Amino acid sequence: MRKLATKAILAVLLAACTVSMNASLNEDLHQKAQPAIDIDTEKAAVKAVLERYIKAFQTRNREGVAEVYAHDEDLVVFGSNPLDRRVGWKMTQAYIDKYFTSVDRIEIGLKDQRIKVHRSGEAAWFSEVLSWKEVEKGKTFVIEGLRISGVLERRDGRWVIVQLHASGPEPSSY
């Protein structure tokens, strides 16, 4: 009876090792089947999108802003004002049109930027701290330490913003 129990235990251990080895082999094959993602290259591509975003705002270029956003119904953008929440590209686009019409000049200084790309190469997130200065009807407004964070997705080979959040202190004016 003892020999039978020992053989049964050995059979179970052998089966467990075989299952574990097969799972490991399948994982290795799956990883090899995935194209290699160059995280640094993707991070640079995300950085370029964020730079285009800032430049589009500074030049009040509506088309430039439109290029970096996903044109989705579930795009979410929170502005720095607690009441400023936009859902969907149409609402975001309308806000940008109104905002660009109301300001005479926008100056943005990037102080700190962090970008992380998911190992799949399909999603990225970022945070940055900005100095934001705008002139509206001859009056200058400044926000030092404006915090921006967001999420981008890689779609058809290009990165687009799918979520963005801004927060910061009340603007000073002069």
Strand and helix map with partners:
Layout: H1 2-33, H2 39-58, H3 62-68, E1 76-78, E2 85-87, H4 89-102, E3 105-117, E4 123-136, E5 139-155, E6 158-167, E7 172-173
Parallel strand pairs: 1-6
Antiparallel strand pairs: 1-2, 3-4, 4-5, 5-6, 5-7
Helix pairs in contact: 2-3
Helix proportion of residues, in percent?
A: 40-55%
CATH class wording of the largest domain: Alpha Beta
Radius of gyration: 25 Å
Number of helices: 4
Oligomer state equals single chain
Low-confidence spans: none
| Named CATH architecture of the largest domain | Roll
Shape: globular
Question: Class by helix and strand content?
Answer: alpha+beta
Quick take:
The chain is built from four helices and seven strands. With 174 residues, it is of the alpha+beta class. It folds into two domains: 1-34; 39-173, Nuclear Transport Factor 2, Chain: A (Roll).
